[in-house]
Amino acid sequence: MKLKKLAGLMALMGAxxxxxxxAQNDGQMQxxxxxxxSIKRIAKEGALPVEIISRKQLEDQGIVTxxxxxxxxNINGNGSDNLAxxxxxxxxxxxGNNGASSANLRGQGADSTLVxxxxxxxxxxxxxxxxxxxNSIPMAAVERVEVLKDGASAVYGTDAIGGVINFILRKNxxxxxxxxxxxxxxxxxxxxxxxxxxxxxxxxxxxxxxxxVTAAHSENKALRGDQRDxxxxxxxxRGVSVDTRGTPHANIFATTLGPSLLSPTGTGPTLPxxxxxxxxxxxxxxxxxxxxNSFDGMAAYDELLWDTPGAAYGCAWDTxxxxxxxxxxxxxxxxxxxxFNVGQHQLFAExxxxxxxxAKRFSPNQVSPSSSTFGPNSFxxxxxxxxxxxxxxxxAVFPSVAANxxxxxxxxxxxxxxxxxxxxxxxEAGRVLVGADGPLTLFGRTFDYxxxxxRATSESKSLLGNGxxxxxxxxxxxxxxxxxxxxxxxxxxSQQALDLIASTSAAGVTLYGGTTTMxxxxxxxxxxxxxxxxxxxxxxxxxxxxxxxxxxxxDERSIAARRAILNAPFDDVNALDKVRRDIKAxxxxxxxxxxxxxxxxxxxxxxxxxxxxxxxxPKVSFRYQPLASLMFRGSYNExxxxxxxxxxxxxxTVTPYAGKDLADPATCPGGKVDSxxxxxxxxxxxxxxxxxxxxxxxxxxxxxxGVVFEPSNFFSASAxxxxxxxxxxxxxxxxxxxxxxxxxxxxxxxxxPATNALVAVDQRWINTGERRTxxxxxxARFNGKFSTGSLWSLGIDGSRLLEKxxxxxxxxxxxESEVGRFLFTGDLGLKxxxxxxxxxxxxxxxGMLQNxxxxxxxxxxxxxxxxxxxxPPDYNAKVDAYSIYNLSVNYTGFQNLTLxxxxxxxxxxxxxxAITYDSNTGAGSSWEPRxxxxxxxxxxxxxxxxxx
Length: 948
Fold this sequence. Notes:
Layout: H1 3-10, E1 31-32, E2 41-42, E3 50-54, H2 55-60, H3 66-72, E4 113-117, E5 120-121, E6 142-148, H4 153-156, E7 163-169, E8 175-185, E9 192-201, E10 209-220, E11 223-224, E12 251-253, E13 298-300, E14 315-317, H5 319-322, E15 324-326, E16 329-342, E17 345-362, E18 366-367, H6 387-397, E19 410-414, E20 421-442, E21 445-464, H7 471-479, H8 495-502, E22 510-532, E23 535-553, E24 576-593, E25 598-609, E26 613-627, E27 630-641, H9 645-649, E28 653-656, E29 686-689, E30 698-712, E31 715-731, H10 735-740, H11 742-745, E32 749-751, E33 758-762, E34 766-785, E35 791-807, E36 832-842, E37 845-854, E38 857-858, H12 863-866, E39 878-879, E40 882-894, E41 897-904, E42 938-946
Parallel strand pairs: 4-7, 29-33
Antiparallel strand pairs: 1-2, 3-6, 4-5, 6-7, 8-9, 8-42, 9-10, 10-16, 11-15, 12-19, 13-14, 16-17, 17-20, 18-19, 20-21, 21-22, 22-23, 23-24, 24-25, 25-26, 26-27, 27-30, 28-29, 30-31, 31-34, 32-33, 34-35, 35-36, 36-37, 37-40, 38-39, 40-41, 41-42
């Protein structure tokens, strides 16, 4: 392989064009457009790192969904972008993760990664309106995937900060092909399957027309936490334990909401002669009790790890085992495309549609004393059947409780009879596109043109399934004493109690829904403008006109019908009644061959948005090849991300601060009330939240420098150093953060001009932060041929993260490095990731062995360990690396039939243990879903049959 061919495979510049251009009838070398550039050029030319994944590579790896593909890319970040890591309750800005999977190139975020289909935009997910759902991509029709590892706003506009992923569909396909795929885990749960049918008629080259039709249906079955042994949050010896006392057998609490059996004042009882006030007490954990582990999934609460001495007699429940580790998904999609040659011109029409159904499932709701949900009227009454038993066991250990006999019991209880919570989300997405391309004569020269008109939509709706109950009726039912939250092992609720719980169900209520719509008209002209001694100067100019629309209903019910539903994540505060913005953009690109060895490319794009106005983004890149075996490449570019609709258009919510613990930070550093210090009196300003119409775009400056070395036709290697400086990041901060950093947020503390008194705190979105990310990507390839004629190859692609840090404002210092360190939210900055492979082909047989590696990182630390209160005997501050091997074998010896069999996770490697814990649903408890696949070893089989 010559170096230019290597550049064509690994470092091509790309384009907006929908697909590969047709070769000219005169037999000239084919010019194509590859993701990242507007200029058609010979495919072997190139200057920027583009990874191209062929259809065969996808099939050899048993990849049938876009999410599976993204998980194998080293350049993709480790955020909550897949169906395992976003299996939690989501609300507010995160609601778009209700069943959505997203790309997150270079860890810049799903909304800073541009996803294209045949070189053009598709609608963002209807629920969130700011990132494309990969489930909507018709993978059965994909011919190849091009991943541009560079910013590209100079060509594409918004979102192209982390990079671009372009799914290129089949073109001029002839035949009828059926394919079936199954992926079955050795342990039960999480099965994956897909069936597809693809038909193509007509030949563009000989008949002048082609029609392509595909239809596919895939299903991912649910994988529950109790189906995998590695899910176990009760591992105190290793530094993790459960921090929820919402258990199937209730813990008894003292509360200030009203007098209760444990305490009339809200302070729990002490042991005779003791000073520790205990709260959250389980009868099972008292001396002589049956023990917390007498219930499946329960164990004693670890008061040392959580540094909560008063919880020593409590039980906890492993929400991780009740969670669904991987959401169930049903995906149906179809594509129809017709292409016609009219002289030298090519006209096409394309329609793509998908329907995705996802059911999030997680642990049952917990009932806990609260003034807004379960007040004193919901406490267990003295008339309840279990009251005296509870009283007798409590008073035996805490004699002071005897004085409270007859008071109701406040408690925290996991309502197992309510069932696991479920949110069902259905998304229908589609795009209709018509366009043309061909030659165009201008000023006596022949250029290539292309033009397209498209309309894309994505409509999502989420419904509440089982596990959600109307709050007030459930509270009333609990207060009747008919429902017993203190059942012992082997006991069951009465039928009357079950009927009472069922009568409060809110299953079937529409949670919320959203729709995004995008209408786009684009066109470009490219070609040679003049010649230099070193070659032709190529140029392209183009326009991009778009209208983007979005509407979101945070609660579809009428105002009168909006009864409270326990823990249902309604989002009415973010409701928008169809907002829109228009984008007008022009762009240009010029390729200049300075010498036979040096080539420069310049690009610039100007976008005009209704709202924040204009933004101009340039790009310059070079390709320098001093030797046939050596090439240098690099680029500098500026890019941007436009604010989301919610960030711009949400209404302002004004909320009076009701607490008595806030002081003015201007007169009382830290903002903590201290009546003994002048200026530290309590204040009650209003707080503002919501959108801000004058938000500007997030901006980024980035650069890359790389080298490709190919000393022989059987070895090549590459390395690319890159850095992204993202500025004006759009953030919203909680009040505690703003108080701690008052010097940087003074402008958000609004004051009376006359008295300088604090009257409001503006917590709306602002352009204020900065993030820096730097890394290096390397690759190497070996290939050869044995004397038998068999072919072999070896390869590795790796990514090393060198720097990842951020700061809340440009005035503040950068925080500590985020490389190789646990973060609760966002992207987990793993230091090293690689994918390595070995292939072998002989006759009708071929095979591949693949290794996927993700480095370990420093784990989070629970409070008791951090304070030195406890040192777990098997504690390890580092999470182990995650490394799995995949094996596949392909056979083509049968007529019209291709079989591919494989084993994923050959060594059956469990996700590494991690000190992660989710107190609400258990998603990711004791393992890290942003890094690892929970399915374990699985067996795949794909059969492809060509009828003609």
